[in-house]
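Q: Could you fold this chain for me?
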Amino acid sequence: MIDDDTDTPEEPSIPETDPVSPYSCLNSKKLHDAAIRALDHYLAPPASKPKLADRRPSSIFTIAPEVDKETLLAHSCETLASANVMASELAFSLTGPQCNMALAIQQMISLAELSVNRVLDQVDPQE
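A: Sure. Below is the predicted structure, expressed as structure tokens.
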């Protein structure tokens, strides 16, 4: 603004501020700790996943360690044969894409069954 008496512009008034920072009374240790926690939360690498050796299998279904390979293969073959029949029966009760999917599952089971049978044929029971 220009004063009527003079030709020089008037200085804008600056509000008076408190010379003391509002942060001067805060505990700098607490601020530092909070900053570290925030940085760790957003920037720290995720905790590593447990190693495979650290994981323990559930004991709900366990196979006795003394069971021989031939017995395990025979039971696997029988289980796959049962799953094969179930998938086949399911496929014939469905139509369209669901039938095709069930038949694909049945085919994968058949392939696994053939593989187990081949290994079972090669197992020497006298080992």
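A (continued): The helical segments are 28-43, 69-93, 96-122.
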